[in-house]
Every structure is written in structure tokens, then in C-alpha cells.
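Board notes (copied after class):
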Amino acid sequence: MKIAKKTKSVIVLLAALCSNFSIGAVRAESLYSESSFRPLTADNKAFRIGDAVTVQVLETSSASTNADTTTRRKNGVNADFSLTRNPNITAGVNVGGDFDGGGRTQRASKLLTQLTVSVIAIQPNGDLQLAGEQILYVNDEEQRVKLEGRARPQDISDGNIILSTRLADARITYVGDGDLSERQRRGWWRRFVDWLGF
């Protein structure tokens, strides 16, 4: 009898506790973050937003254009008039023109640098959108290299390096600012005279 009473009191106590405290749903969680998980045999390539990628910029361009134009034009008009009382009147008009023109344009540029950029977005097809900037100061001259582009994961080497020639939609900007760069710019009066065509 006493055991039955004790059992009954324990059940009542448990029922009271359950009514006072709500028991939350039990859920299972993974032991690792699937977004950042990488197998032990995986390489160190960038694959998510925020990862760093080293870009070797090896850009060389050369262009040359030649143009030569020559035109010749010659027109002639002759007329003779004969009158009985006056001597013959002769009139003539000759029109001629020559034009010779030529031009040559030649440009060559070379940029070799290396900078590390970040993955800022991942395209639906898996391509990585890269962007970054590097600023150097040499003798009070600011040298700024800015790079944007889209890279395929398979173009990134095992050492997490990609060549700039393998970037799609690449935009590479190299700008220098300082006394040396300022001396290379034309003065405002020279630009104004050039704008007038003198």
C-alpha cells in the first residue's frame, strides 16, 4: 500500500514538473559546418566568399598602325571665241589639286605585379568573383593596383595562384600619384591650346 502511494506521489510530482516546464523539441545538428568543411585530402584553393587568392598579373600589349593616303585631281576647261572685228579671245581654266597624308601610331605597355585579392561573390555556375587593391608608397609616390575579374575554380593552381590572363571580364588599373606623375602631365594651358586645335 505504501509503495503504491509513493509511486502515485512520484507520478503526480512528475506531471506537475512537466506542466510547469515546457520540454523543447529535440533536434540533431551536424558536428561540422557544411559551408566551411573541407576534406583532409583537399587542396588550399579558395572556394567561398572571403577567401584570398593570389593573382599574378602578366600583361603585355603592343599595337602599331600605319596609314598612307595620296590623292590626285586635275580638271581642265578650255574655250575659244572668234569674232570678226576683234582678235580671237581665248579663255582657259585649269584646276588641279594634290593631297598627301600619312600617319603612324605605335603603343606598347607591360605590367608585371602580384597581389592578393578576395572572393566577393560566387556566380551561379560556380565561378568566383574576385576584387582587391594594393597600394605601395615609394619615395612619397603612391602606386595603386586595382583588380577585378571572374575566375573559374579549375584555373586556380594548387598553391591558390591564378594568372591574370585566365580571368574573365578582367579590369586592371595601375595608377601612380605624386610629384613624378604630376610632372608628366601637361599643363592646363597646353591642354586648352590643344583643345582649340593649335
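Comment from the instructor: The two ends are 121 Å apart (CA to CA). The helical segments are 2-20, 179-184, 188-196.
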